[in-house]
Amino acid sequence: MSSTFGTLFRVTTFGESHGKGVGAIVDGCPPGLDLSENDIQPQLDRRRPGQTKLTTDRQEADQVTILSGVENGRVLGTPIGMSVANKDQRPGDYEEMRSVPRPSHADYTYQMKYGIRTSSGGGRSSARETIGRVAAGAIAEKFLYADYGVEIVAWVSSVGTVSGGDIDENLITRATVDQNPVRCPSARHAEQMMQAIMAAKEDNDSLGGIVSCVCRHVPAGLGEPVFDKMEARLAQAMLSIPATKGFEIGSGFGGTRLAGSQHNDPFVKKEGRLGTITNNSGGVQGGISNGEPIVFRVAFKPPATIGKAQHTADFKGRNTTLEAKGRHDPCVVPRAVPIVETMAALVIGDLALRQRAR
Ligand SMILES: Cc1cc2nc3c(=O)[nH]c(=O)nc-3n(C[C@H](O)[C@H](O)[C@H](O)COP(=O)(O)O)c2cc1C
After folding, report:
1. pLDDT for 59
2. Which of 199, 213, 234, 334 lies most in the core, judged by the most C-beta atoms within 10 Å?
3. Which three-class secondary structure state does DSSP give residue 308?
4. Is there an atom of ligand 1 within 6 Å of 289 CB?
């Protein structure tokens, strides 16, 4: 199992959803950076369960403790260890799932791969694993902003069949995204999304959605052709987030409907650099950032664990019906926003250090 991501800014996450705790070790953060728990906690607070009625009721404070690698508020350059305790475990909620693998969850595949799996919850496949990534990515965000002024903002651009309207990627901020619990910056569309999520929840069902993301002020030149192209690393990072089903950058799949003359991004002089008039490339050409905003979208499926009765089979192949108990997210995208942002920071932070190392 690979729990490590990155080449020079490297993060290893650890922990299961119903074990004692989760966390991460970050190796390679540039020394001297000012850092405390206060830099990491805000993104963990945006990710944590139990925030609103739109998310799972599991109550976790998700308070991070920095164990190593920081002294007197400054990064030492040695491994930064971070831990978060699990407090609100309810193993009894998973009783009926011991013999019945949840349809479209990871119970069956983990059992097939390892021959053993955690007795309750999803273990490493649970979204609690993402706490370690978010904590590590918050450090990458801090270093990227300090050294380059990089700003990363993600938002919910659709929930089920409700889309989020037009958003100006140059102006959007985390403050506008967080104005409502669904994290869609358009208040009118956010209201429709919230109603859709609440209706699915009441029906013991779940909904998918799309998280969009913009990374501004990324300097030109980041990305390592040919296998570690910027978009290849972003795609890997995003598709490693649980429940993701798709990734597109720039014009994405929609760009296939345009002619080259419509799709090309003509060059123009911009504030002392060469920029482009349009940004169908999504800020990346040839796998290397071109100085324009990096813009991409990530598709999330409807979460698998639902209270609605489903016909399925147990591990022995006997027909059965599963009605999942316990506390689960009816839609993951509001909580996925900080996960997408911090994974983007891990990719860009790593590629920035690789560019410096040339
Ligand atoms: C923020 C977040 C919260 C999630 N919450 C749930 C949940 O409550 N119930 C569930 O079945 N899946 C949830 N998931 C998704 C599962 O972890 C994931 O679907 C499962 O591990 C199977 O992996 P796969 O969907 O990537 O194939 C969540 C994912 C994210 C990103």
Report:
1. 87
2. 334
3. coil
4. no
